[in-house]
Write a structure and sequence with these properties.
The structure holds 2 protein chains of 2 kinds. Chain A is an all-alpha fold. Chain A is built from 15 helices and 2 strands. In chain A, helix 5 packs antiparallel against helix 12. The chains are: A mainly alpha, B alpha/beta.
């Protein structure tokens, strides 16, 4: 402890001692002006197109505006409105519920898929392509297709198939309890392939000697997966989990196209709410306010996640 | 040294970017759109008009093109270009905000009050006066598009009131008389139960519930039972016993009679598709259901019946709706005048000139468009009667199957005035809840929905 303090003190001293006085002529002679001139276009373009909309969003969240009539400042009125919206709690809970379901159902599947394909000695390219296939179907087309599968009548596709083994018919999207799991089922189908590709790429970096050694020691496939593959992939797994979390908190297309947020708000999500505020109600202030809150929450989540998983991170 | 330079660089960059942003935001066009310019009916002017039929409907497009050509000939100073832009609730607000809509196009009448209140519509009074169009408009419709001072902001067309569409063939299969459709909600319930018992795989009655149609239809049902959603001034939500009664009826049809089928997430298009596929016996609709189901989904016109909205607690009325012609708030006065001229030419001339009336009807018939769909005229009923007389030989819509609707004398009630679409959106989940949760507490749902709508009204007034 004392060593640590001492080293900190000495570093501060060094920093203070070594900081030279700023001189314009010296700065100019060492090419400072050229550097600034060189950087300005890039910085301005970056600020305008990347930070500009963010800033604009912050400004709009404090205004009442339909972008046609002149905007009025309403202070935190929009935040007050969205936070008092009785539907917000349910939308937040639904979003968390979706994230949790996607984590439980959707997260392990691509890992297993990747390990499975990686273990194949032959035709692995074919399986790769098959696993990736859903990812190349445009989401809107795939969702409209799955809507047919989810037809609640006994002649619906899934219900017919389940009827052969004496199950159903199930209401799928037409019941509050089943709507969200049905959406997660689709999302898993649609997303597993592209995530598996990333894991497969990561798996190729795992040293084969480790497997050989384990095999010599008599480890079966599950022990090899558990003790070698998963630990070796943990960096990728942690990043993918964070990306998935952020992605699931921004879920929009699926509930929008499958159910429009119904039945009875069972699939209403935060992003769908933002969309409805802006594009159905034309209340861009409320939409921006909720977006700012969501961005803040996701930023916070990322920080918490970073510290929570720091111990397990390989780097 | 390095740190200091970086800090200066960032500061310089930020200041530069902020200056650029401010400068750019100053370039936003002013909302008066150069209203200071003089109105000159003969000036050269260019406009775009929406609702142009898409390329997959070549006959309809040809008929529209013919009208455009005739308009160009009559108005050589106006350059008119068609656009396939049509109103879509999901994208309309964004396009309106982005300023990408044509000079004039049709939009749901629902938006009238809020667009006027929000300053998103130009004052059209001087242009309509210039064209002498005001006296032609149906006074009933006019009330929907004026502000308190009587200024007119849009032209209402394609008006309708909600009625009851039913499948005559399914009625016959169920042993019901298609010529005496239900006139009370109790009779609707009876008929729905009979249909679902007698005709397999058919929902006796279906209700629209998504994309704001759930709230729209709950409002209609509430009106038919004597209630209101908002007070007349649109200052508070006032749903009460009548809405409870409407939801209780839906609940009982769904859970006691099981006469509403399996699908409870219909929007209007999906419901119309299912109706055209003979999956639905009875559906709340206006006669404008005729065109999409017959033209797009090949429904047999002989099977369609439309009657007036069923009532409960006496005779109360029905909800009106229609299309408003949305003029671009940023257009110049000369553009607005030209656009109003186009609407007068396209929508109104046929009511006042027998030759034009017959020409248009013939063109419609040749394009495969139905002629003579009943509805509320945008002109006075007398003028409409004369027009129907002119085109009578060309009418191909079986109007006798709409007799209950045509003969209706129900009071026409306007939509909830404040944030109409948001109000409807807030009621969608209520209807969905009743249809998907047997134990839903109706009173509580309505109390909650009243709170939500009060919040929406407060936000609109902010």
């Amino acid at each position: 402890m004392s060593t640590l303090q001492a080293s900190r003190t000495s570093r501060t001293v060094v920093a203070q001692r070594s900081r030279p006085r700023f001189s314009v002529s010296k700065w100019y002679r060492s090419g400072g002006l050229q550097a600034v001139l060189f950087a300005i276009p890039i910085v301005v373009i970056f600020l305008y197109f990347s930070w500009g909309p963010i800033l604009q969003g912050l400004v709009i969240s404090l205004q009442k505006t339909n972008l046609v009539a002149p905007a009025e400042w309403v202070g935190l009125g929009n935040f007050e409105y969205v936070l008092n919206d009785p539907g917000l709690v349910q939308a937040a809970l639904n979003t968390v519920y979706f994230a949790a379901l996607a984590l439980v159902i959707g997260f392990p599947i691509p890992i297993f898929l990747a390990v499975f394909i990686n273990e194949l000695r032959r035709y692995d390219g074919l399986y790769n392509a098959l696993a990736y296939l859903p990812a190349i179907v445009p989401p809107v087309a795939a969702i409209l297709l799955w809507k047919f599968f989810y037809d609640p009548s006994s002649s619906g596709m899934f219900n017919t198939a389940l009827g052969w083994i004496g199950l159903g018919p199930y209401p799928w999207l037409n019941a509050e309890a089943m709507a969200m799991p049905s959406i997660v089922l689709y999302a898993t189908w649609a997303g597993a392939g592209s995530t598996a590709i990333i894991y497969i790429a990561a798996l190729s970096t795992v040293k084969t000697e480790l497997y050989e050694a384990a095999e010599i020691d008599g480890a079966g496939i599950w022990r090899r997966v558990w003790h070698i593959t998963i630990p070796q992939l943990r960096g990728v797994i942690l990043v993918m989990m964070l990306l998935q979390l952020i992605g699931t908190f921004q879920i929009f297309t699926e509930p929008f196209l499958f159910t429009g947020g119904g039945p009875s708000n069972a699939t209403q999500t935060i992003l769908l709410k933002i969309y409805n505020y802006a594009f159905v109600n034309g209340d861009f202030g409320a939409a921006s306010a909720l977006s700012v809150l969501l961005a803040g929450f996701l930023g916070l989540l990322s920080v918490v996640y970073y510290f929570a998983t720091k111990r397990w991170s390989p780097s | 040294m390095k740190k200091l330079t970086l800090r200066h660089l960032l500061a310089a960059g930020t200041v530069g970017a902020l200056t650029t942003l401010t400068a750019c935001s100053g370039l936003t066009p002013s909302s008066d759109g150069g209203a200071a310019a003089e109105l000159d009916p003969d000036a050269e002017v260019s406009i775009t008009v929406g609702d142009y039929p898409t390329a997959d409907k070549p006959e309809e497009r040809a008929a529209f093109d013919a009208q455009l050509d005739a308009f160009r000939e009559a108005n050589p100073n106006i350059t008119i270009e068609p656009s396939t832009e049509v109103w879509d609730a999901q994208t309309f607000q964004a396009k309106l905000a982005g300023g990408t809509l044509p000079t004039v196009m049709g939009v749901s009448l629902t938006y009238s009050h809020e667009l006027i209140a929000d300053g998103q519509l130009p004052d059209m009074t001087p242009y309509l006066e210039e064209l002498g169009l005001i006296d032609d408009l149906n006074p009933l419709a006019l009330a929907n598009v004026q502000d308190e001072e009587g200024r007119i902001y849009t032209i209402p067309t394609g008006l309708f009131s909600v009625g009851l569409a039913y499948n005559r063939d399914i009625f016959e299969q169920a042993g019901l008389d298609p010529d005496s459709p239900p006139t009370t909600w109790e009779e609707v319930r009876e008929a729905a139960r009979t249909i679902s018992e007698e005709v397999p795989d058919v929902a006796g009655y279906a209700q629209m519930t998504t994309n704001n149609t759930g709230g729209w239809m709950l409002t209609t049902m509430t009106y038919s039972m004597g209630g209101r959603i908002q007070d007349d001034a649109g200052t508070e939500a006032v749903m009460g016993d009548e809405t409870t009664q409407a939801l209780q009826l839906l609940h009982d049809m769904r859970w006691e009679d099981d006469s509403m089928g399996d699908q409870f997430l219909y929007d209007q298009d999906a419901a119309r598709q299912a109706f055209a596929a003979d999956d639905i016996g009875i559906l709340l609709q206006a006669p404008d259901i005729y065109k999409p189901i017959v033209q797009d989904y090949e429904f047999d016109p002989a099977d369609l019946g439309v009657t007036e909205l069923p009532q409960a607690n006496g005779v109360n009325g029905t909800l009106t709706g229609g299309t408003l012609k949305l003029f671009d708030v940023q257009a110049t006065p000369n553009q607005l005048l030209a656009a109003a001229k186009w609407i007068q030419f396209y929508e109104f001339d046929k009511y006042y000139d027998e030759d034009i009336a017959i020409d248009r009807a013939e063109a419609d018939a040749a394009a495969g468009n139905p002629v003579g769909i009943p509805g509320l005229p945008p002109v006075s009923p007398e003028v409409d009667e004369q027009y129907i007389g002119w085109i009578d030989p060309l009418i191909d819509v079986p109007r006798d199957q709409f007799q209950g609707y045509i003969d209706s004398e129900l009071e026409l009630i306007g939509e909830p005035p404040t944030s109409t679409q948001e109000t409807y959106a807030a009621l969608d989940p209520v209807v969905q809840k009743i249809l998907t949760d047997e134990n839903a507490d109706i009173e509580q749902e309505i109390a909650d929905a009243n709170d939500v709508i009060d919040g929406i009204i407060a936000q609109a007034a902010r």
